[in-house]
Amino acid sequence: MTDPVQSPVLRLEGIVKTFPGVRALDGVSFSVLPGEVHALMGENGAGKSTLMKVLGGIHRPDDGAIYVGGERVVMAGPLEAKANGIVFIHQELSLATELSVAENVYLGELPRKRFGRVDWKTLAARTNAILKKLKAPFDARTRVGDLSIANQQMVEIARALTVDARAVIFDEPTASLTDAEKVVLFDVISDLTADGVGIIYISHRMEEIFKITDRITVLRDGQYQGTVATRDVDEEAVTQMMIGRKLDLSRSALDHELGEVALEVRGLSCGELYRDVSFQVRRGEVLGFYGLVGAGRTEIAETLFGLRDPSAGEILIDGEAVRIRSPADAIARGVSLVPEDRKGQGLVLGMNCRDNMTLPQVDDLKAGPFMAEGAEIAIFDQYRDKLDIRTPGWRQKVGNLSGGNQQKIVIGKWLSMHPSVLIVDEPTRGIDVGSKSEIHKLLRALAAQGYAVIVISSEMPEVLHVSDRIAAMYSGRIMRTFTADEVTEDSLIQAISGLGDDRAA
Amino acid sequence: MHKGRLSAALKKGAIWGFIVIELIFFSIAGEYLSLSGKAFMDYDNMLLLLKQSAPIGIIAMGMSLVMINGNIDLSVGAIFAIAAIVLLDSMTWPIFSGLGDWVIPAAWLLALAAGTALGALNGLIVWKTGVDAFIVTLGAMLGYRGIVFMFNGENPTSHLNWTLVDMAEAQFLGIHTPTWFLLGVTLAIWFVMTQTVHGRNAAAIGDNREAAVNAGIRVGPHMMINFALIGFLAALSAVVFYSESGSVNPNDGRLYELWVITAVVLGGARISGGSGSAIGALGGVIAIQLLRKGLGHIGVDTSTVNLVIGLILIAVLILDRQLNVKGKGELRV
Amino acid sequence: MATLTRQQIASAAAKQGILIAFALFMIAFAFANPKFIGLDNLSSVVRSSAILGVMALGVTFVVISGNLDLSVGSMMSFSTVVVLDLHDKIGPALAVPAMFAMTLALGALIGLLVGYLKLNSLIVTLGMLSAIHGLTLSYSGGKNMDIADKAGTWFSVFGQGSALGVPMPILIFAGLAALLGVMLSKTPFGRKVYAVGGNATAATFSGVPRARTVFTCYLLSAACVAVAALIQASRSMGAQNTVGQGLELEVLAAVILGGASLMGGSGTIFKTVVGVLILGFIQNGLLLMGLQFYVQFVVTWVIIILAVWLDIAAKRGKLWSRIA
User: Fold this and answer.
1) Cys staple from C294: which of B150, B302, C22, C312, with CB 3.0 to 4.6 Å?
2) What is the DSSP letter of A400?
3) Would you call A471 an interface residue with chain C, using a CB distance cutoff of 8 Å?
C-alpha cells in the first residue's frame, strides 16, 4: 500500500436498529472515503434502506455511532442530517412541481431582501451556479413540472448541493432513466467525487456497479458481510456474498399432472411499461415473476386484472381471447389478484374481517334482498380454518390484525371466488418469518389443487421456493424463463440485472 | 419554450379569450335583444362593470392566496356581512359621538379589524386542531351568519353619513373609488403571491405539503396569515361597498364564496392547491361580471343568471378534469 | 400494542363522550326548565326535527360513501315550491309524483357529476346549491307559494295528520329511518357504500362498481329531500322560496354529531337519528332558555368543529395538531 490512509468522510460503527419482532440492523460498520463511489448491495430485506434512513436522520439507531469527517454526530431529523453534510437522494422524487427549479432547490431557504421579498437575483445566481456545476440542460427559472424525470432528479441533486455535502447517498437512481440520461448522471457523480464528496450508491444493477464504483459493501439479513474493492471481484463473488446461506430449495416435487393452459398471453405491451410479453400458465403450476422495481411485473398483473389497457397483444383465458376492461370483468372471467399494497389496495381497514372477505361476491350472497349473513360467516369460518387466520372473531376490524393475518384475509377473499387464475403480487411483503413460510406452503398447495398461480416477488428465496417456472424480467421485457430444475441464483440475478445472455446455467 | 409550456400558456390565457368572446357575443346579441338603446360596449358601461366587479373581486384576491396554499374559505360572505354591520352601526356608537366626521376612519378600522379577527380565528382553528379548512369555514359560514342575525334579527342595519357617501362615490381620474381599490388589491396580492417569501412558501405548501414540511417550512403560521388576510379583504370589500350604499341586510353576501371560488377557478387556480394567480382571478371576476351584465342586457332575469353561473363552475371543473386526464395505460382507479 | 389500546380508549371516549355530554346536558336543561322534559315539548321537538331528520338520512349515505351534499337545502326549497305550485295546477295526486320525478332528476345530475365524472363533491354541490336556488326563483317568479284552498285537500295529511295518536311526520321519519337503516346495514348495496367510502381503491380492486354506488347514494339523498319537502309543504300549506336555506349545514351537523366520519366509511342510520335528536334538543333547549333563535347557528358551528376535532384527535392520538 503506497497510498497514505485517508480519513473517511463518513464512518458507521456498530449500528443497531430493531423494530418490533425484527433486528433490521445488527452491528453494521463500514466507512466511506472522500472522493470514492461506494456501492451498498444486498437483497431486499438485507437492511439497506433501514441503514440509509438511519444515516438520513429519519430513524435513530438503538446502538452504535456515526462519524462525519471524524466527528461524532447525532441526527434528530432530515434537516439536521443535511446540516451535517449528509444528503439523501430518494428513489421517489419529492418536489413542488408548480414552482421553479430555483424555488425547489432553495425550498424553505429562499434568500430575502427587506420587507420579506424574495431576492430573485441572488436565488437565480446561486441556483445557476449549482446547475452549471451539474451541467444541467435547463436554467433556474424553469417550472419543475415541465422537466423530464431525469431532469427532475437533477433538481433533487441540486437541492443536495446547497450545502457543502460531505456524503451523498443515491437510492436506485437509474430506475427511470434512459441510457443517455444515465451517462449524464454518472458524469455528475464523477464531478462530485472530484470535489472530495463521498458517494454511497445503492443498486441491484451489476452493470452499473462494476462501471462506476470503487468499493462494494454487502449486507445480508441486517449483518455486515464485508467490503471489497470493485476491481478485485466479479459478479459471481458479489452474488455469493449477498446470498451466502443455504437456500431451502426443497419443494414438493411435481407429483400432480399439469392441467390445461388456463392463461395465455401473447405479445402483450403497454406503452413504456412493458413490451412484447408472452407466457402461459397451466392449471397446477406456479409461474413466478422475478425482477427489480420498475421491471413491469405489477403492471402486467394490473393489465390482467382490468386496471390498465394494453396497447398491443392478446389475452386468452381457457383458450378464449378476452378483453378485460375492469376488475369486475376480470373477476367474472375467473382472474383474481392479491395486490401488492395490501392496506391500500387489498383491504378496507375500517371494515370487519368477514365483510372484507366477502366483498367481491356480495351480490351473490343474498337471501331475497338482504345479505345472507349465515352464508357469509360460513365462508369466513372456512377460510379462517384453512388458512389459520388468527383473529378474535369475524367482527374484528381488519386494520387491527397483524400483517400476516391481513394478507391471509386477502388471500381467503380471492380463494373463495374459486378463480381460474390467481395472481399474487408480493405475497409476503412486510410479514413475519413464521407466516411467510405458511403462505409459501399454501401457494404450493393451491397449485396441487389445480389452481393456475402467478407469483410476483422481489425476494429470491421466495420465488425459488414457490415457483415451478420463473420469468425473469428487466426493463419491461421477459429476459428469460427458467424451469425449477435449471435455475440458479447467479443466472437469475444476471437475467434481472439486464445481463441477458443464454449461457447454460 | 419547453414542452407543456404552450398548453399551460394557453390555459392561462383562456380566461381572457373567454372575456373577448363574451364581449363580442353580447355586443352582437344586444343589438337584437336589448331593450335599451345603448350599445353593450359603451365606455361608461365598461367602467361600471369594473366598479361592480370590486366587491367580489377584492375577496377573490384573498381566495387566490388561500387556495394556492391548499385551503378554501367558505365563510367570506358571512364575514363580509359582519364587517358591513360593524362599519355602519359603529358610526352611531356613543363612544364616537364627539368625533364628528372623524368617526369614519374609526368605523373603517373597526370593520377591518373585525374581519381580520374572524379570519384569523378560522386560521387558528385550522392550525391548532388539524381540522380541514373546508369544515372549519363551512361551520363558520353558519356561525358567523348566526352572529349577523343575532345583531338585528331580519332587519337591515343602516346609517347614512353623507361625507362618507360622497367619498365613496368620488372618481379619481375618471375611475370609480371601488375600481381603484380592486386594482390596488390585485396589485398587492400579486406582489405577495409572486414576490414575497411568504407567498412562495404558501404555494409550496399547497403544491407538496410533505416536501415543504421536510424543508422546514412552518405550515401553521403561513395558513393563519392567509386566513387573516382573506378576512381583512372581505371586510375591505364590505367597507368599500357599504360606504356608498349605507344599508346592509342580514342576508347580504350569501353565496359570495361560491362566486369568488368560481372566479378564482376560472382564472386558472386548482382546488387542490399549488397553482393560481391574482391576475387570473381578476380575469375570472371580470368574466363573471361580464356574463351577468351581458345576460341582463339581453333581457335574461337575475335568477337565471345564478343558474348559469352555477353551471359554468361545473363546466369548468369538467374541463379541468379532462385536460388533466392522462392517456392510455394509466391505472383506472 | 399499548398505544393501540390508548387510541381505542380515546376513540371510544370521544364517541361515547358525545352521548354522555348530551345526557348531562338534558339533565341540566330539565332542572333549569321543567317544561323541557314535558311530553308535549319532547314530542314537539321530535316532530319538528322530522324534516331535518329525513334529509339527514339521505345525506348519511352520501357521507358514508366519502362525499358531501351541500345542495339539499336549496333542493328542498325547490321541491317544496314545486309541489305547492303543482298542487293547485294539476291536483295533489299528480303533483306529488311530478315533484319526486323532478327532484330525483336533480339528484341524478349530481350523481352523474360526482360519481361518473369524478368531480369534487364539495364544489359541485356548492355550485348546484346556487343553480337550484336560481331555478327556484325562476320557477316561482320570486313570489311565495300558497295553496289556495287549504281546508279542502287531503294533501295536508303528510304534515298535519296523525295515525294512532302519533303525528305523521314522526311516522314518516321513523318508517324511512327503519327502511334505510335496513338497506344500509343488511343489503349488498349498503356493504358497497361502506367499501367505497372506506377505501375506494380497495373497493375497485374488489370489483365494486364505484361510480354506480356513488350515483345511487345521491339518488337516495334526493329522494329523502323530496319526502322532506312533502312534509314541509303539507304542514305549512305555503312556503317562501327560501324555506330550505341553510338546512344543508344543519343536516351535516346532525350527521357529524351522530359520529359519521367526513372521510367516509363509517356511520349508521341509527347514529344519524341520534344526531338529529341531539341537535333538535339542543336547539330547543336554547330556545327555552330564552336565547335568541339565531344563537343555535353559533352553537351548531361550535358543535361541528368540536365533533370533527374530537374524531380526528382520537384517531391520531393527540389533541393538538402537529402540522408545524
Assistant:
1) B150
2) G
3) no
Cβ-Cβ contacts under 8 Å, C305 against chain B: 125, 129, 131, 135-136, 139
User: What pLDDT does C24 receive?
Assistant: 77
Query: In angstroms, rounded to a whole number, what is the distance separating the alpha carbons of residues C225 and B35?
Result: 40
Those of residues 149-188 in C touching chain A at CB distance below 8 A are: 182, 186-188
C167 SS3 class? strand
Number of H helices, E strands in chain B: 13, 4
Share of chain A above pLDDT 70, in %: 94
Interface test with A, best of B195, B200, B325, B331 (most A CBs within 10 A): B200
Q: Does the structure show a pLDDT above 90 at B110?
A: yes
Flag the least confident range among A220-229, A492-501, C159-168. A492-501
Cell numbers 378554501 correspond to B72
Cα dihedral A419, A422, A424, A425, rounded to 10, equals -100
How far CA A453 is from CA of A261, A263, A289, A349, A450, in Å, comes to 11, 10, 11, 26, 9
User: CA geometry: angle at A189 spanning A183 and A190, to 5°?
Assistant: 90
pLDDT over threshold 90, residue A489? no
Residues of each domain in chain A carrying CATH 3.40.50.300: 10-243
Grid cell for residue C182: 335496513
> How far apart, in whole angstroms, are the C-alpha atoms of residue A457 and residue A298?
10
CA distance A411 to A390: 14
Interface of A with B in 143-172 (CB under 8 A): 143, 145-147
pLDDT mean over A490-502: 73
CATH number at residue C128: 1.10.3470
Count of domains in chain C? 1
| Among chain C residues, CA nearest to A339 | C205
Task: Please state the rounded mean pLDDT for residues A473-495.
Answer: 86
CB A167 within 8 A of CB A86: yes
Class at the top of the CATH hierarchy for domain A10-243: alpha beta
ipTM, two decimals, is 0.86
The rounded distance, in Å, linking the Cα atoms of A291 and A281 is 18
Query: Would the CB atoms of B135 and C262 count as touching at under 8 Å?
Result: yes
pLDDT of residue B60: 97
One-letter amino acid at A82 equals K
> Lowest-pLDDT range, A344-358, B318-332, C35-49?
B318-332
CA dist., res. C296 & res. C309, Å (int): 20
The nearest CA of chain B is from the CA of C25 a distance in Å of 21
Report how far residue A88's alpha carbon sits from residue A55's, in angstroms, rounded to the nearest whole number.
9
- Cell readout for C28 is 341540566
Say whether residue A300 is in contact with chain B using an 8 A CB cutoff. Answer: no
Classify residue C9 as exposed, middle or buried by CB count within 10 Å of its CB (0-12, 13-18, 19+): exposed
Give me the domain span that covers residue C256: 19-316
Closest residue of B to A156, CA-based? Answer: B211
Q: Give the model's pLDDT for residue C69.
A: 95
Please give the average per-residue pLDDT across B126-134, as a whole number: 92
- Contact, A168 vs A10, CB < 8 A? no
Average pLDDT rounded to a whole number, residues C240-244: 86
| Cβ(A459)–Cβ(A43) below 8 Å | yes
Evaluated on CA atoms C261, C265, C271, C273, the torsion sign reads positive
Cβ-contact A431, A439 below 8 angstroms:
yes
Structure confidence by residue, pLDDT tens digits, A153-173:
889 889 888 888 889 999 888
Highest mean pLDDT pick, A21-25, A462-466, C56-60: C56-60
* pLDDT of res. B264: 92
Asked if C244 is an interface residue toward chain A (Cβ–Cβ < 8 A), one would say no
Which of B2, B200, B275 minimises the CB distance to A110? Answer: B200
Residue pLDDT, tens place only, C118-146: 888 988 998 898 889 888 988 888 788 88
Flag whether residue A362 sits within 8 Å of chain C, measured between CB atoms. Answer: yes
